[in-house]
Amino acid sequence: MKKQVVTSVIAFLVAFSLSTGASYALTSYLYAPESNGATTPLTSPKIGGGLNIDPSAPRKSECPTNGKMFTAAEQKVWESRRPIVAMIENMPEARPQSGLNSADVIYEAVAEGGVSRFAAVFYCGVAAQDTIIGPVRSARTTFINAASEYNYPLYTHVGGANCGSSDPKLCNTDKRVQALEQINQYGWGGSKGNDLNQFSIGFPTFWRDYERLGETVATEHTMYTSTEKLWKYASATRGWTNKTPDGKSDWKDKFVPFTFKDDAKDKGSVAKISFGFWESYHQFDVVWNYDATNNQYLRENGGTSHTDLNTKEQINAKVVVVQFTKELGPLDEHKHMLYEVIGTGKGLLFQDGTATEVTWSKKDREARTVWSDSKGKKVSFNRGKIVFEILPLDNTVTY
Length: 399
Fold this sequence. Notes:
Blueprint: H1 9-30, E1 61-62, E2 69-70, H2 72-78, E3 84-89, E4 105-112, E5 115-122, E6 132-133, H3 141-147, E7 154-157, H4 179-185, E8 195-197, E9 207-208, E10 223-226, H5 227-238, E11 259-261, E12 272-275, E13 286-291, E14 296-301, E15 304-305, E16 316-317, E17 319-325, E18 327-328, E19 338-339, E20 343-351, E21 354-362, E22 370-372, E23 380-382, E24 386-392
Parallel strand pairs: 3-7, 4-24, 7-8, 11-23, 17-24
Antiparallel strand pairs: 1-2, 3-5, 4-5, 6-10, 9-10, 12-13, 13-14, 14-15, 14-16, 17-20, 18-19, 20-21, 21-22
């Protein structure tokens, strides 16, 4: 049976406020700001440019993150960089978000209190186009464990769950989900790491836009950045390119791509995938509708079409993977949740209008998750955006 919300909305908001304040305090302690001030404008600065791609150029370069084919010019751009893994919120007040349709891979799981969040991987799909991302939110352990597969990606977030006190004995966050402490423990923090925490960067790499959705929203839903601004900051300010922090190897040297395939000629008849995260929070329920004409899946969230603010298009995916994991939590007064993506488990693979029972295995934080069929053979994913839906073991997926 899925979890039910046991605290009131007021209690949750109070806990969130306390968590946010503690996150800022600890981040200020752990990181020395690298830009003078965090002053941000009320409207987005103009950004643009990008790479001019010849539409007739052959697309023979396979993206390592999702297998989609691109031009040689785009490959030249992405090979000079490491992937961005950005935390994007999913509160109803934040929808439609910016950038989700431009991501190569997306991970979705509950962050706390039944509220889901995304970790979006940007690499090949934005090589030719500067893309606004947001609203950017805080770091969570579940997503750090998933992001670690990308070998020191540029992890982009605004603060994160943390101890909340300089005295460990007074921590109000469970040690298992102290994301900021984990970032430093893993060597991601500091000038030689890979962590892009807004608290230590500020404007113009990050900015606030209170009316991007056409109406004024609360401050926590207003933080934005862009792919080119992040890569420019990483390269120009911290010297981070395609190399790992030790400067000895390309990030892809230890990255294990999935196996990819072209779309199947014969399509299945599984037309709809639906599930919820928590029974009492239907505004986060998800439906993926199969679009047979384009062989892709179109997303609904909370009963309505889920669109991308940048493209105005419905969020889509070539592949949807449900990953059933052990759920831990709520672990503390902030209602933080942890989903154990390290280990083994079962899942469901949706592509080409079909549903396949699969298994997954991830031996440690930095290892690549291996997806296999019932015979133990690694599965092949369709080329294009992959969305991983991380759910508790007892959740029901209807299809």
